[in-house]
């Protein structure tokens, strides 16, 4: 939200350099696609937004995360150990592990807000997974508010993006299709 938007975008994209060996990254005039395992993928999204948010201008970012999409081939680079173990763990244990990961998240020194929705596709127990995730979110330390069809998070970018990572990886079937639709914001003049 500045006339210097090109530099804000390119500096954010520069933060992806450390991830080029672990992710397939394609940027065009409309968006940036990143494909790979959830660990480096979510670190890259966090670092990209944090780099842009360190400037004083109001910045926003829209992200769609997807795992287990039946329309995509099973790419070995997208393997994730957390997903493979998650289905063997009861819901309350996954909530505890998720909360511990948020507590241990790195401090990025950037305050952000995120509004997101988790979509667990499929039959049988998907609402239990969503309600279990909501309970985790409310106890995460980053929870701000429930809204219609979404949840609002606020806090340091490290903790907020770790909350998103845990929601994405620990809730929903390991072999199922799970998506997150999110909008991140920093330095909004509306908060002043």
Tell me what the structure shows.
The chain has helices spanning 5-14, 38-53, 81-86, 91-103, 126-139, 157-170, and strands spanning 24-27, 32-35, 59-67, 111-120, 143-147, 150-156, 178-186. The chain is globular, with a radius of gyration of 16 Å. A hairpin with a 4-residue loop joins strand 1 (24-27) and strand 2 (32-35). It has a five-stranded antiparallel sheet with strand order 3-7-4-6-5. The chain has a two-stranded antiparallel sheet with strand order 1-2. The chain has 192 residues and is α+β, with helices and mostly antiparallel strands. The longest helix is centred in the first third of the chain and has 16 residues, at 38-53. The mean pLDDT is 90. The protein has six helices and seven strands; from the N terminus they run αββαβααβαββαβ. Helix 1 runs antiparallel to helix 2. It has a domain at 60-191: Alpha-Beta Plaits (2-Layer Sandwich).
CATH architecture of the domain at 60-191: 2-Layer Sandwich
Query: Strand order, biggest sheet?
Result: 3-7-4-6-5
Helical content, roughly?
A: 25-40%
- What is the CATH T-level topology of the domain at 60-191? Alpha-Beta Plaits
Q: Looking at the structure, what is the overall shape?
A: globular
Radius of gyration: 16 Å
Low confidence ranges:
none
**Average pLDDT figure:** 90
Total number of helices: 6
- Largest sheet, strands/sense/barrel: 5 strands, antiparallel
Strand content: 25-35%
The CATH class of the domain at 60-191 is identified as: Alpha Beta
What class would the helix/strand composition place it in? alpha+beta
End-to-end CA span? 16 Å
How many beta strands in the DSSP annotation?
A: 7
Element order: H for helix, E for strand: HEEHEHHEHEEHE
């Amino acid at each position: 939200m500045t006339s210097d938007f090109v530099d804000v975008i390119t500096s954010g994209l520069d933060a992806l350099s450390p991830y080029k060996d672990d992710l397939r990254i394609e940027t065009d005039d409309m968006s940036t696609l990143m494909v790979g395992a959830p660990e480096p993928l979510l670190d890259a999204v966090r670092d990209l937004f944090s780099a842009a948010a360190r400037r004083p201008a109001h910045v926003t970012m829209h992200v769609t995360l997807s795992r287990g999409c039946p329309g995509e081939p099973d790419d070995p680079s997208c393997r994730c150990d957390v997903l493979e173990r998650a289905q063997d763990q009861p819901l309350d244990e996954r909530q505890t592990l998720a909360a511990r990961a948020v507590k241990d998240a790195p401090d990025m020194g950037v305050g952000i807000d995120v509004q997101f929705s988790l979509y667990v596709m499929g039959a049988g127990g998907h609402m239990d997974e969503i309600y279990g995730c909501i309970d985790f979110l409310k106890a995460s330390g980053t929870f701000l508010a429930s809204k219609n069809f979404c949840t609002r998070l606020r806090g340091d970018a490290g903790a907020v993006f770790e909350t998103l990572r845990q929601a994405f990886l620990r809730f929903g079937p390991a072999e199922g299709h799970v998506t997150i639709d999110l909008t991140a914001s920093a330095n909004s003049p509306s908060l002043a």
